[in-house]
Write a structure and sequence with these properties.
This protein has two domains: 93 residues, MurE/MurF, N-terminal domain (Udp-n-acetylmuramoylalanyl-d-glutamate--2,6- Diaminopimelate Ligase, Chain: A, domain 1); 216 residues, UDP N-Acetylglucosamine Acyltransferase, domain 1 (3 Solenoid), CATH 2.160.10.10. It is built from four helices and 40 strands. The strands form six sheets. The chain has a twelve-stranded mixed sheet with strand order 8-11-14-17-20-25-28-31-34-37-39-40. It comes from Kordia antarctica. GO terms for molecular function: N-acyltransferase activity; UDP-3-O-[(3R)-3-hydroxyacyl]-glucosamine N-acyltransferase activity. Pfam families: Hexapep (PF00132), LpxD (PF04613).
Amino acid sequence: MKFTATQIAGILEGDIVGDPNTEVSKLSKIEEGMEGSLTFLANPKYTQYIYSTRASITIVNKDFIAEDNIKTTLIKVEDAYESFSKILEYYDKVKLNKVGIEQPAFISESAKYGKELYFGAFSYMGDNVKMGDYVKVYPNAYIGDNVTIGNNVVIFAGAKIYSESVIGDNCVIHSGAIVGADGFGFAPDKNGEFHKIPQTGNVILEDDVDVGAGTTIDRATMGSTIIRKGVKLDNQIQIAHNVEIGKNTVIAAQTGIAGSAKIGENCMIGGQVGIVGHITIGNNVRIQAQSGISRNIKDGEIVQGSPAINYGDYNKSYVYFKNLPKLAKTINQIEKKINNNE
């Protein structure tokens, strides 16, 4: 897929300095730029590379003035970083812009889908599925019975959407993710044997939710596991049954959230955090990586540690913790002096 400087300048509303017919087919860092690639210069620390880069086109700020000869064609814009991000987004949409139903694939006769569907080979769409416009389902994906999917949804290869799940508009579900698996519900009998509790609820993903590769979101025992609008989930996260995550919260990889925990809006949760069930975490909370959350967290708190405590208290405590051997030695010496004076 090739783009000319003229086409890129048109997308970015930029000005060309150089050959408008220059073509690019890939992206690169400015210091690693190769012929046929597009790059950008936003950080002044990298200015030196614009005079040596082999990239065919470079996006720069409008106030950039070359102090030496350059070979790359320039596209001048108001904000080079923002413009390059816009190009990345545009490139991604074009790259993923597949349409049509590949074979072999299975689509139930009772399923309904909108315009410009892409449905990859070896994928499955069950009974009574309702799917909106511009949905992309990549190969080997599974869409169970009675699933509802909105517009502009992308489901990557190998993702599994269990029955009754509801997915809003503009969601992205990456490879290997599982939405709607049974919650971890078992009850012991009088002999200590565990018996499965039927998981009769579902999962709801509201609009603009991203689900990372290998992440699992369990269906509710009753009712719904709910992921609110704008939530972003990293790879390999476990979200248990009946959890609710508030809008615009972001969660990093390998975090585990136990059943019926309620997480507020605009929270930031680091990697490998463990959250016990049946607690409430407020809005605008920050949880540092590898923390263990075993209590309710109030709005705006920043916590760290396991069990987690206030972030500032944790840092102060750590100063003492790392010096414990020295402190213990000092205390022992003081005790000896006291004992010798008795």
